């Protein structure tokens, strides 16, 4: 999660769970005994913090209703019961990444993920996208790749492929990394990458002016995840595709992870 995370609780049991979550969730803070509760939650939401609310969903809905704006801009919100048995992505499930975040947290807590979208019965296929400067070393790329897995709590076995733009078809560092990881290395042309433009988390004018798309790593990951899933409809695949990890970068390279959902 690439934003501050605020955890709110209302009961003693909830507070104990919140303190446990602080140890599990990076960049998180428990606002214990936050009063007035509604105002504190709304303020955190309006400043763009991701929220974990340990309370009833009804309380969460009534608290956040006055400050909701758009699923395209609202931060992700999870609701947990005070025993930590259920994890519910309440807001910004797709666009804000709450679904993916909830899944990771449920796995960490060994809790039940409660998805209210159609994806609740679907199997995810993960793909990694990478971009880099010419001649970037395999070692540098491998370190960034591992960082991406660590941030998403994914394993190498979860990843379907390593991907980039077609002008990187001969990029030795990426080719060698894929070979070491025993992953297919795929590249896609600009026309295919442009299809997923609405799903990008950011748009770089510099990258667009250089290669013709607004982001290499995110675009390649999204297209590859879609390509790994069989479907009669490209629109259906597009609807079932999302970023699990928004682009992270070093001075030399970028990486992102996407997933598409496959009917089991």
TrEMBL record:
Please list the residue ranges annotated as the Cobalamin synthesis G N-terminal domain.
41-118
Alphabetical list of Gene3D superfamilies matching this protein: 3.40.50.11220, CobE/GbiG C-terminal domain
> CobE/GbiG C-terminal domain location, by residue?
127-258
Among InterPro entries, the record links this protein to: CbiG_hydrolase, CbiG_N, CobE/GbiG_C, CobE/GbiG_C_sf, GbiG_N_sf
Might you name a Gene Ontology BP term for this protein? cobalamin biosynthetic process
- Give any Pfam family that matches: CbiG_C
Q: What is this protein called?
A: Cobalamin biosynthesis protein CbiG
